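User: I'm designing a mutation panel for ABC transporter substrate-binding protein and want to avoid disrupting the core. Could you give me a predicted structure to guide residue selection? Please restate the sequence first so the numbering is unambiguous.

Assistant: Good idea. Sequence first, for numbering, then the predicted structure tokens:
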Amino acid sequence: MMRLFCVLLFLITGVSHANEVKQYTDPYALIEEVAGQAFARVKNEREQMLDDPAYADQVVKDELLPYVDTRYAAYKVIGPTLRDMSKAQRDRFADAFKEHMIQTYSNVLFKYDQQTLQFAKKVKLGTQRVIDIPVHFVQAGQPDIKVTFKLRKNKKTSVWLVFDVVAEGVSLLDTKKSELAGLIRSKGIDEVTLMLEQKNAETRPVSKTN
């Protein structure tokens, strides 16, 4: 299931460039517009991602992060105790959480298999700031998998970003909350942040493309 989450989050970001980040005010365009080219990127670079985990990390940084609200997701993981933390504590945890997610995604990108996406019909947007967009993940000879992308609109810029993916009823964000929220309550934010930082610092191969 984690493999599917990571692949799907990557697929919606495949045509971006680190210095050419498109700002999407239409969440359906964010999901649909880039999916086809993202499939091609994963297929073409699968072996390089397999051979070079550091390269896969860099792909995630370049292609995925501009379209995922990792700070909002990090704050959701922290939960109600967020208001009791200093800005420095929040920022440090958000940075560690982002790096943690980079490695989570990149560790499984190369396992992508041949599949196609079927998009749901576009629904007229109202005033909502959070929207769920369902997509079907299809592979011949296998049951379709319904996947829901959860997006949030920035109230100042009106730009939409992904903050969660739900596949077969399982939320990636809720999974991370179940892993970390209890630790934050019992050990404190500083210790959990340090734990993430130490895990993030574990040795990974240096990218051959650098």
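For picking mutation sites, this is relevant: The chain has one domain: 2-200. The helical segments are 2-11, 27-32, 35-51, 53-64, 70-78, 87-106, 172-187, 189-200.
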